[in-house]
Records
---
Amino acid sequence: MKIYPYKRLNRPITLRVTSVSLRLPDGTRDRLETTAYSTQQQAVALGIAGHDDWSSATIGLSATLPPGADAPDAAWSDLRVLAVLTDGETNVRTSTELTRDTENGRDWSGSVEVLRDDHLGRASLAVYAVGTVDGVRGRSIAETDRSWVVDTVSDEPVRGLRLEVQKASFSRSSRDWLRVYADAPWVVDTSARVPTVFVNTDVEGVMGLLDSKGSGVDSKVRDLLVAQMATDVWTAVFHSAIGDLEVEPGSGPVFPTDWQGEVLREMLPDVVPGVHVEEALRQVHRRRTGESGWAELQTRIHYAAVRRAEASRALGYVIRALEQMNRESET
Amino acid sequence: METGEEFGPWLARQLKLAGKTQAELAEELGLTRAAVSAWITGRSTPRPTVMADIAKALGTDVSTVHTRTTDTRSGLPLTWYHRPGYPDGGRDLGNAAAFAFDADVQVLARETCQNSLDERLTDNGRPVRVRYTLHELTGEALDAFRDAILWNELFPHYSAVSEIAGHQKVGRVVDAGVRDMYEKGRLVLLRVDDYNASGLTGDDYADGKFAAVVRRQLESLKSGTAAGGSYGLGKATLWATSALGLVLINSTLSVPHEGRTERRVIGRLELPWREVNGEPYAGPAWFGRPDPDSPGARVVRSWWADEETVARLHLTRDSDEPGTSFLIVGAHDVASLEGSVSEGDDEITEEEGSEDTRDIRRMHRRLVEALGRDFWAAMTGGGGRLPLLEVSVRALRNGEEVVPEQQVDPSVEQPSRTRALRAYYEGATVDRLTEAGQVAARTVPLKLPLQGGARGTLGTHQAVLLVTEAEDRDGTKNQVHSLRGNRMTVRKAGVPRLPVGTNPFQAVLLVGEAAGESAPFAQEAEEFLRAAEPPEHDRWGQTEELTLRWSPSAYRRISMLTSEVNNAVRDLVARPRRGNQGGGEALRKALTVRKRPKAKAPSGPVIPVLEGLEATIGDGGEWQITAEVSIPKGDQVVPMVPIAQLDVRSGGRPRLEWAELVAVEGCEVQDGTLRFAPGIRSATFRGATDITSHPVRTSLTRLVLELRAGKGE
């Protein structure tokens, strides 16, 4: 629980994205359709238009302060509203001041400039109302309770992080390192910006199976395959994330701010159930670096991965489909 | 001074009303019958001295004869005419049309407003103005009104109906209505006025709007091709809304009848079959002047009332602009009970309690809501185009304003749809949405079938689809509202198969004449869709008329339009499916990091959680905290270590040491660890941080308190 040493507004600020445009290398601007952002998911996908070479993006914003920000008896003065774009991977933080739409209104608007070179993947966008409290300038009086996610690469405005899927012929790929795995149907690369699954197109029919639609046995087998791959991926990303923790002397491991943090927050409740994720992280870290307990944890990590991959459901469907097929061939 | 009607027709009617012949008048005046005949046919007018004699003969004053704005009071007085029982002994226990509707002011609003729209005078280009007035009468005002409608004459009929009330619906409603008036000493009048409309024109009995409303059932007279069918089934809602089955009407005509236009008044009562003083009555009754031409001069007809009479009947109109006022006597709103649970908390409940179906404030609110929902499009103008309709609602009690007159503002009631239509009128639409608040426009084809069952297509009408971002006030998200020429929302439907995370939108489909005069086959589309509309005007689909005039499969053309519309909407608001970048969609989905339901808490020792925290900065600059802990049910409770930290933007949080840690209730402190007694569900402890462990000035920090299991590492 968090406590501020001064009076604040209780309710959060609401933030809406109103427009998105990209500046292209030739100096022109591409105004993206409103499908580039999702109000429900609170996410912006800058990769949606298929431009690989944009240099900066302008995101139009509108924020509504909770009631009371302008109260005459407020404990603060010099009210200002700032939009802050934070990137946990590159540690870039950009603030832009918003302007009030109408005098004494609660709506503020403006736009933030997203410079492509400042970001690797996902940045988060929040709005702060700040003022001078007890002579201290720039104290936060209210914030958005849920930040928007600005993804500079994704082509779909979804809030959840999407791990990448790529297909390649392992034996002939320009990625030399894949050749070693020419006989594997898929491998997971956790060293990339976002963990990536490479599917080996040398295995004939694998892509066809993965892309199969319909409701026949094919699709059940596809689901089982997907569950198998997903289990592998989740296990790999968890290990990768837990092996890469930054440790603060005296206070233990720090939650990563990039995809590793998202993966850990998602999986830790299944790995160490019943405790706060921060506590869970400390326990897992202790077991991994300490003398004992790491081996015992493997089952729980596997369980967390299987659950995410929905393996039991996929397996159940396949079994039922097979039973039905057998019955049909008997009659 | 008002200009009255021609002397001849006026005198003829006065004679008829008074039951006198031309010869009798001539005799009284000491003139020849030919002289009187010459006046009546308009060949001559009487000299001023004779006027006084005529006034005397008719039992009125000279000015009435001069101005001729009203009928004389001579002859038969205003009265109620109850239709006698059928000679074959048949009994109608209620009006079938009225029976179909429950008392619901929202349905009333829809039907009456639609009638007003259809009867709008189109030549002057101005909107039709409709006003709903809720007026609660009590005490003297109620008594005066009851006298005006000759309540004492009606009462035996209501009593007779009450006696049979137990057996059928209409009787029960009427019985409850009369009892409410006596027990609570009040009566709610709901008046619906329209201005700049045609008014109830035509003869009292022959075909015309007057007869359609007052004398007939189910007859629908449509003023134009776009009309929704005025004064048809819908007019029954007027009577259905009255708990007493009583509606009074005052109309100013756009086309003179009997040489007059203003204050044509009549009342109509809908009761079930009844027996009063041994006489059977069929059901309906009318309030008016006995018609000397009718058998025994018993049937009453409308009369041209004077200003005083309309005032006493609460029927005074604001101006001489044509239009009609309907006064629903004893209005009630049974349907309001359904929604009363979810109502806002800002409403002051009347002393009668929330189950009152005659609460004028609630009826007011429900009227505004319904009018905004159904008629926002008709109320929207833009681009030099005036709206078709202006509506206001007010509530009074004994003439005092309770809720001030409020004009229904479509941009408040339906902000995004109104914005869409306005942008279309102003030509400010875009092809694709790039900014919140924009309106995208598309044309969508409606292939019209050939009439008479022939195969093939008559032509393709281009409907206009408008899509814009939804606002919170619009109600259900992601809806398409479809309108025809009368701009009334006919169809409301959601768009299926939208991807998750689609930005909320509202769409408007303008079909037929609403798509603009220049749209191809607009009239034909209008006609086709009107035929596909049921009497409720709330959808398009298979109807008998459609089958008979076109073909049994004609309704499929509407399904095709719907799917075209849904595709167009999806194209505008949903992300286009990108080419497959490898890996099936299924795999990509499985690899999304999203919140899943947490794992079940394990059995074993339970872990207490922080429930509440209060913190202040002490005199020495230390954080002083009082924290509440809640403990889940369990046999064994894990000891917890409270950790005080300072919040930071990134990196690890600096940890503060405790100078003091004291148990207040439900726990004990040992070496900085909280231990909880079994069976206790909540605990409180107090603490103060060690100022020497603070890295910065305390007033510039944010405190984070956590409870950790184990050693607190």
---
Amino acid sequence: MAPAAQSLINQGSMRRNRAVRRLGQVGLWLNPVFAYFFLWAPILILVLFSFNESKSVASFTGFTLKWYNNILNNVMGAERAFSTEIMLNAFRNSLFVGAVATAIATVLGTMIALAMARGRFPGKSLIDSLLFLPVVIPEITQAISLAIFFKVAFDWIAGISGERVFPGFHTIIIAHVTFNISFVAIVVRARLADMDPQLEEAAGDLGANPWRTFWRVTFPLILPGVVSGALLAFTLSLDDFVITFFTSGVGTSTLPVFVYGLLKLTVTPEVNAISTIMMVLSTLLIGISLAMQGRTASRA
Amino acid sequence: MAFRLRRLRENGSLLALPTVAWLVVFFVLPLAVVLVFSFMSRGRGGVAILPFTIEHYERTFGVFFIILRRSIGLAALTTVICLLLGYPLAFFISTRRRRVLRQIALFLVILPFWTNFLIRTYAWRILLGEEGTINGVLLSLGLIGEPLSLLNTQLAVVIGLIYGFLPFMVLPIYASVERFNFRYVDAAHDLGANDIRTFLRVVLPLTLPGVLAGCALVFIPSVGAFVTPDLLGGAKGLMIGNLINKQFGGSGNMPLGSALSIVMMAVVMLSLLVYIFANRREAGD
Amino acid sequence: MKRLMLLLAILCLVAPVAIAQDMEHEPWTCPDGYEGQTLSIFNWSTYIAEDTVPNFEEACGVTVNYDIYESNEAMLARIRQGNPGYDIIVPSGGTVQRMAEEMLLIPLDLEMIPNIANVIPDLLGAAYDPENMYSLPYQWGTVGVGYSTEVFPDGISSWNQVWDHDGPVAWLDDRQTMLGIAHLFLGNDPNTTDAAEINAARDYLIEKGGNVVTVAADDGQVLLERGDVDIAVEYNGDILQISWDCECDDYAYAIPEEGSNVWIDNLSIPVDAPNPELAMVFIDYILDAKVGADLTNYIWYASPNQASIDSGFIDEEILNDPAIFPPPEQVANLFAIIDVGAEAEELINNAWDELLIFLGQ
């Protein structure tokens, strides 16, 4: 084949190659645009309708702040509307359950993460799967297993002591701790894996006892991991519906359980408003925690 | 020093004990109870009574099988679309040059997650409704003459599931792309490989662990979804999660509900085994 | 149940023409000794006025927990698994009978409920609870079709229009009612316990359900309001609430001529209620003329309270609305749901599961 022809073919393939690349680049740009639009459009609709004058979600009739005003009035105790009152109560329940469950799950999760990373004992791989399972088991399976378990356990307690036990905050909190432990443990372990164990050994060499070593060396180093694990747990707790739904008792409805009841009927703009507030608050929270992490990272 | 280290290591088992005890009592034991219940008969009011029976499993693989198959199908479709959407997105995020831009791009994927899942799913009811936003826009643009029926379909369920779980696909892929060394691409190009070949032979294999993890993280919650089909699916988008829920509410049959969820769990475990197997082979290559 | 139907017929004749007498009304007062206590209520969604509970809290100095459910079956499932701590539930007639049989209800102390005198005498002693041992009426109503008047300018008069409609339809997730309607078409007793008949009703509904987009648990009216369905099989009050909300004539309610379900919801106290005495005080409170009228004015269901009707506290508009107080010739066509026993319950539940599975095909 003549060299000229060869070069022509090469040029052709190069041109094709360039066309493919350009197409790929366009695709690479279009995809994120579409994906971000897809992720954000529903949120924007949600925020938009929190300012909707009419109660309807079908059309936007005019701008108003009255739904926010209603919430504010209720928080300040200036006015009492029954339905808003129930919603705020559910919100408080959510925060309470989230805080307690996060605290317990963070301690238990951090402990097992430390044990798994530093300890040597039989059955470690079994514990590994045990930690992994709650993450991958379908929520509804976990929910019904706890519901059945509590029923069986409470019947049993009533049979023995004659005392009737009711589900309530304790059952919800137990359930939340159970699914949160694994998430905390995974996050903390990732942090521990990045950490040099020689630091602890050095502290030991310098005469610190294990307790001191932990609080003075290990803990400060894994703290960012513990904090993000706790944040994750708190978020999961606030967001959980299915498991809470199956384990809640009387008057312990959390915000998602309350919202579910409403969704089946109608979403008042007040629900949109409180979601918008929650979203703004959590954005701030994440922003602050990111900024803090950035500062510690730059200091290190 | 050696003495102290040993003590820390021995304390390890002590340190693990409370958590392990907690998980055994509140996770393993309840699952064991479900397994036992699934083999018991239904008593009045839907509770489990003796004698043992396999009738609930017969029913699960009988009339309920259609819905089980549908749940797996919809979850698989969701996973594939999430992959097609999420892979380029993860690439886009990790190839931003400035760190701040990367963080913002990632942040924009995660942030919607801080809104209540129910509310976000509900927002799709507003978007997809007969008089919803999508129909409104399409009608006013003159692209359609009649509003489309989008809500209460399997399509609506898939959209809702993708929406709910897309970040689960993006994050693991992002993590693996982050570690990916782009010099390999240059090397492949220097060796004469075109873009498609480079992608298939170099980029994809090296980011495969992230892809596999993402697929598992999307598929598993999709199979067991209950809220999304409940809010968006209507009669035609019913999934296995809804029927399990019914057995604990209106239909009052806890043993049947237990059998259904044991079977669903088996499906999930099977898909996990596939994941682990694929991962091993990947690592072995 | 014949007796109940007859009584309802008479009642409907009487109610709309009852002359409003502006009587002096003493506001309800709470008996002493309940301050600081707690009452837990488990009620249907959108089934209470905004101020009913806060006024009670204030009158008695108590705190009220208020949770909602969306079907008799869901509530029943919850109580059967062990009452989690509710003092008041609101079961429909057949469910009262079933729960009483399963010993899930506490007998009422009628001495503590003097306002029982306000209840329309014909609504006391219904077949499901002849002695009113376990229940007193809360509200009553019908199941029918809510429809868009734009799609159906001439209205709906037959279930066949619902089955044949070429457009989205929502059914009610109330298994005994829906199967009962199918039984009417098949010439069977709506409360039949025969397996073959129940399965025939299931197949009939599957055949007629090609246009069903969702089987809604008490939220069909919202789908109708948003235009997602043209017809919603629903409880009458729910449809009326959306017409009232939009202040328009876009929606209407009708009871098809073939017949439908009539129900009475009741106030009952579940077994193991933590505070049954306060629960009885609450029942007395609900049966007060003014409180009962406020309730009906807000939720648009028919009041079982003669004193509320007579006192003129209920809006004229509601008293004269045939969708709330149906005319007697319609009432004759209605069937009430009764307890069918454990075996038929399982047959019905299985049939309903199968119906849900095959409707989606």
